[in-house]
């Protein structure tokens, strides 16, 4: 396959066939740089060398009644994580201040649980109004399954984006969780869209799915028109159902990132959880397909030192995307 030519065709509007998509995941390691060159051709067309930074604030940890097999916060996990109820508005604001100072583009307020309570939505809404005023940060909320009135309140408060990952293909979904359905997840993304929030939805790779499953997730996110697509690589936590699962190698992770870029050419593709542990020393190459990363820690696992992320971007000759207030702070 001529990967660069295929990328040119994608730029002309082509949607890859299933066979072409699978061929990316089956590409030999010897073709990897050509594949990444193709992915970069697309990435550069839409995003140049800009990198968007995102930061997660874990607003409520543990105590979740759901049974997602990858999650240390689930009802079936025995992982010894820190557990706490929904944090206060002041704590959220302190996180936003740190995000602002660290050149973060999108501040992500994430809470465990099947869905938010009225009080949770009120706390997020009040915090977001102040975050917008003080810092001008984009805010993404990730609070679980969403109802119409909750989506309306969050949008009115200023939440820009709502995250709810599809995680895996429809046919692999029930292997990962049985306490909610794949369609529940799709519905929440649709509700967020209907209420004017930008849809963020992504995947977790390495959960014993097939390559065909990975292709199907990439197409499902294309069909959902997700603006932002976090691609997580499983960091199997001891005490979860997927404990001990280690199927990924760094070269395969790069092929997955390329696949998501070829199928979702215009979208924000983020290397999300598990970046450090799964891509290892090949992390910089991932930025030729992705245009976004998380900086700092993940929900219950640690990321690498922030300085290593900034050095990675600088060494590539790429540039962090900042808002006007952040640019004024640096000037
Ligand atoms: S992923 Fe979310 S819904 Fe699933 S168990 Fe973890 S916190 Fe609960």
Automatic annotation (TrEMBL):
Keywords: 2Fe-2S, 4Fe-4S, Biotin biosynthesis, Iron, Iron-sulfur, Metal-binding, S-adenosyl-L-methionine, Transferase. Belongs to the radical SAM superfamily. Biotin synthase family. The keyword Iron applies. Catalyzes the conversion of dethiobiotin (DTB) to biotin by the insertion of a sulfur atom into dethiobiotin via a radical-based mechanism. [4Fe-4S] cluster binds at residues 64, 68, 71. Pfam families: BATS, Radical_SAM. It comes from the Bacteria. The keyword Ribonucleoprotein does not apply. Pathway: Cofactor biosynthesis; biotin biosynthesis; biotin from 7,8-diaminononanoate: step 2/2. It catalyses: (4R,5S)-dethiobiotin + (sulfur carrier)-SH + 2 reduced [2Fe-2S]-[ferredoxin] + 2 S-adenosyl-L-methionine = (sulfur carrier)-H + biotin + 2 5'-deoxyadenosine + 2 L-methionine + 2 oxidized [2Fe-2S]-[ferredoxin]. Its cofactor is [2Fe-2S] cluster; [4Fe-4S] cluster. It comes from Solibacillus palustris. This is Biotin synthase. Homodimer. Binds 1 [2Fe-2S] cluster. The cluster is coordinated with 3 cysteines and 1 arginine. Binds 1 [4Fe-4S] cluster. The cluster is coordinated with 3 cysteines and an exchangeable S-adenosyl-L-methionine. GO terms for molecular function: biotin synthase activity. [2Fe-2S] cluster binds at residues 108, 140, 200, 270. InterPro entries: Aldolase_TIM (IPR013785), BATS_dom (IPR010722), Biotin_synth/BioAB (IPR002684), Biotin_synthase (IPR024177), Elp3/MiaA/NifB-like_rSAM (IPR006638), rSAM (IPR007197), rSAM_sf (IPR058240). It is an enzyme of class 2 (transferase). SUPFAM superfamilies: Radical SAM enzymes. Residues 46-272 form the Radical SAM core domain. Its EC number is 2.8.1.6.
